[in-house]
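TICKET: design request
STATUS: open
ATTACHED STRUCTURE:
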């Protein structure tokens, strides 16, 4: 299979490494990488060409940033930008998004699932050192989940359990994990 990774930050690099370790073809695209030496017209052409190449992939992992906006909500600008041009059999969203985002994208006609990442924070995060995760949550519509599971089975072996759910539950699970980690930090600070 041919995979694409859109967004080449911490999650995107980790995802590309997993794909390459599995011996699969991997194309990556990041709006900010490799463009410093081009003039603006060359940048536009280069990005257009890269988007066309990404759209030839069987499955694409979307790993773009969703920073907090000034009101505390997630800024989905990068996610919306990617889905404005992405046209693949299945998009696997790894960016942390508010519950309901994947469902909205599916209602707009995209074949998309949400697969939360649990790499962890810092250089010694437990999942960052593993060759594959113990489980993956695949949230979305049944047809898209089946496509995503087929794609993921080319990267991870049978020791990785696939847990199927709707996308809102998967998105909520990711938020719950993030909240729990923040709660532990707050608790430790209070104890201190």
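STATUS: resolved
RESOLUTION: sequence designed for all positions
ATTACHED SEQUENCE:
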């Amino acid at each position: 299979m041919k995979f694409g990774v859109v967004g080449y930050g911490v999650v995107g690099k980790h995802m590309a490494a997993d794909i390459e370790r599995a011996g699969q073809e991997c194309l990556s695209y990041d709006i900010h990488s490799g463009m410093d030496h081009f003039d603006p017209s060359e940048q536009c052409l280069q990005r257009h060409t890269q988007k066309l190449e990404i759209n030839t992939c069987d499955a694409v992992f979307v790993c773009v940033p969703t920073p907090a906006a000034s009101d505390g909500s997630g800024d989905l600008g990068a996610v919306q930008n990617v889905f404005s041009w992405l046209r693949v059999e299945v998009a696997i969203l790894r960016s942390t998004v508010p519950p309901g985002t994947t469902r909205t994208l599916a209602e707009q006609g995209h074949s998309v699932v949400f697969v939360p990442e649990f790499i962890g924070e810092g250089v010694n995060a437990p999942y960052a050192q593993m060759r594959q995760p113990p489980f993956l949550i695949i949230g979305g519509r049944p047809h898209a989940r089946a496509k995503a599971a087929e794609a993921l089975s080319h990267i991870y072996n049978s020791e990785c359990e696939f847990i199927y759910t709707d996308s809102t539950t998967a998105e909520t699970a990711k938020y719950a994990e993030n909240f729990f980690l923040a709660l532990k930090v707050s608790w430790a600070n209070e104890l201190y």
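CLOSING REMARK: Helices lie at 10-21, 40-54, 77-85, 101-107, 142-152, 167-191. The first strand starts at residue 2 and ends at 6.
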